[in-house]
Specification:
Elements: H1 2-13, H2 17-25, H3 29-58, H4 64-85, H5 89-103, H6 110-115
Helix pairs in contact: 3-4
Length: 121
């Protein structure tokens, strides 16, 4: 398994300059914007996780002001991502409610979470 991964890495490194240029050319401004949005979402989530980790693991005071700021940033990136993909915010919310209603008929419970009715074939 390790030998296969190593061979794949060597193949990637040996790509010609033309191949690297072709891959680079495929990176359109739209793709770059979406990558920036996704990285932004990830970064903001990481900041929230770090704040909560420091509180739970190291006994530091929970910085709610920072958490509110980071959730605001998350919301901005979420809306930007939806717009970039042509997804309506209200439609997204409605679809999520439908999914959760199917998953947890009658409301959430631990048992229903384990059974995940929406994943039945």
């Amino acid at each position: 398994m390790c030998e296969k991964k190593y061979a794949e890495m060597i193949t990637i490194v040996q790509k010609s300059d033309e191949e690297w240029q072709r891959l680079s050319d495929e990176m359109t401004p739209e793709k770059m914007k979406l990558i920036q949005i996704i990285m932004g979402l990830s970064g903001e989530v990481g900041e929230i996780v770090d704040n909560i980790k420091n509180h739970m693991m190291y006994g530091k005071e929970l910085d709610l002001n920072n958490i509110v700021e980071e959730f605001g940033d998350l919301y901005w990136y979420l809306r930007a991502g939806l717009k970039s993909l042509g997804i309506n915010y209200e439609d997204m919310k409605e679809n999520n409610i439908k999914k959760l209603t199917k998953r947890y008929p009658g409301g959430y419970s631990r048992e229903k979470a384990i059974q995940r009715r929406d994943k039945e074939v």
